[in-house]
Amino acid sequence: MTSQRVSRIHRGLIAALVSIYIAFAIVGIFWDFVDGKVLWVVILGGAAAAIVIGAVVRNAPWWISVGLISVGAIVGGVVLLWTILVPLAAAVLVALTFSISRRSQPA
Questions:
Q1: pTM of the entire structure?
Q2: CA nearest 53: which of 71, 79, 75?
Q3: First CA to last CA across the chain, in angstroms?
Q4: How many CB atoms lie within 10 A of CB 26?
Q5: Domain boundaries in the chain?
Q6: In Å, how far from its chain's centre is CA 98?
Q7: What is the rounded distance in angstroms from the CA atom of residue 21 to the CA atom of residue 72?
Q8: Could you please report the per-residue DSSP string of 40-60?
Q9: How many other C-beta atoms can be found within 10 angstroms of the C-beta atom of residue 100?
């Protein structure tokens, strides 16, 4: 796989997971299937924010970006564990993030 294709898949996974986390946070507000609504919204909103901030940060060291994306993806994936596909997508995002960061570092 080319570097450009991996980068495109990475950006697509970021967009998909952030959209899913925000959508579930909004749905949790209006439906009664969530017991702790505030906690639900804070966790999923925070996970989405961490992913976006990690993807946007350019001037920080590489490990900050990797850490933010990884923590956001894992936390959101754990909260939505019952969906099965979201945690798998989160795991792929973490793996791609580490792969891309290792590729861009000087040896």
A1: 0.89
A2: 71
A3: 21
A4: 13
A5: 3-100
A6: 13
A7: 10
A8: HHHHHHHHHHHHHHHHH--SS
A9: 19
